[in-house]
Amino acid sequence: MPLGIRIFAVYFLFVGLAGWFVLSTVTDEIQPGVRQSTEETLVDTANLLAEILHDEVKAGSLAQGHWPELLEAYGRRQPQANIWGLTKRAVNHRIYVTDASGRVLLDSSGRALGQDYSRWNDVYLTLRGDYGARTTHEDPDNPESSVMYVAAPILDGEQIIGVVSVAKPNRTLQPYIERSQRRLRWFGVGLIALGLLVGALLSWWLSSALGKLTRYAQAVSAGSRAELPRLPGGELGQLAMAVEHMRTELEGKAYVERYVHTLTHELKSPLAAIRGAAELLDSDLPAPQRRRFAANIQRESRRLQQLIERLLHLAQVEQRQGLEERVAVPLAALVEELVQGRQARITAGGVRIEQALDPALRLCGERFLLRQALANLLDNALDFTPPGGLIRFVAERRGAHIVLCLYNQGVAIPEYALARLTERFYSLPRPGGGRKSTGLGLNFVQEVVGLHGGTLAIGNAAGGVEVRLDLPGA
Questions:
Q1: Beta bridge partners of 155
Q2: Residue 314 reports pLDDT greater than 60
Q3: Domains and CATH numbers, the chain
Q4: Is-contact 277 296, C-beta < 8 A?
Q5: What is the Cα–Cα distance from 441 to 325, expressed in whole angstroms?
Q6: 118-132, 288-302, 380-394, 434-448: the lowest-pLDDT one
Q7: Which of the residues 12, 191, 356, 384 has the least number of beta carbons within 10 Å of its own beta carbon?
């Protein structure tokens, strides 16, 4: 199972269980919380009525006064109050008053007038001086018919002369309880969903970051050029930098070892030629032979210098993971500059140069590297173009890229060599003398093109050879 899925699964389990537990607990607490709040309000109401009814109860004129009519009128009221989205259409309080013996003197419902309520807890406890309250089911078979009763003593000094009880059916509170529970469930589900979304994004982010780092490590292991992925700071950023440092150290060591072996092998031939010529120059030779051997030493020395310089240029390109700059490079002007720099050689060989380049075409990349790569291609074309032959530059824009074709007349490349032309130190004999180059030019061009995100293709064309470069345009 991928790491991101495992992280999300653990997060989902934790958030889901925690959210369910909290939501269930809070939902279960809503009903008792609402009833406790209502009970507190009933306490205040009962104590207020106890003070208001004190004089009538003490005088014994409660039933003959105006209170029965007031309570009857109260029962007929229709508030039409909009409370939290619910409309209250009737009053629900029941109020009754008992004397010091528990006999009902006044009842807003009219059901218990004259009855003995001294056994009910609200009246019984209040007459004893305790807090009197009870919950009783109006219908024993209906659990939703419970009614809360809260009582308050009517005091004459220190003596309890009566009790006022205020009752409220719990069913009138149920709509508010259910609405609160529904809203809480929706909010809870939304918060859990939001938490899971955050968890999914976190898992995706972490998995994506680790995936980038893994792909980078795999590309480095495969020997491909890859840029260090951009990762945020912290542990992931430190891990990326550690992997990059390890790559640099390992590649540097392997790179030096490989180049030492390669350079040693390639230097053997010119050094042997120089040493042989130098040994012969120590002997008594005719002047023409001495000049010939001295010329050999100079030629092989130039070859050594060229080999070392090209190795240094190639090493610099191969070690780079990206471009140092990306600027617009006018293609026509760059080719013209290269041609003018080799005009003497072109004139001496009688080579014809054709340029069909739009001045508006611009490459996007590092000018120095692009110039070096095109210079290598032009030098290579001049090497293989016979006297009086043709070299032609053609370019066109294809989408975001520019395709540059360099054609030179000459002998076709053998089939066995086509696949090896960009190998390091692989070279074909030059026409005329049969000498080979360092075999580093096309390898350098391929590295530069790859660094720019382009492609290089070399193949035979009608009457010659064509090199095709596909590079990003500006």
A1: 160
A2: no
A3: 3-178 (3.30.450.20), 252-319 (1.10.287.130), 327-472 (3.30.565.10)
A4: yes
A5: 23
A6: 434-448
A7: 356
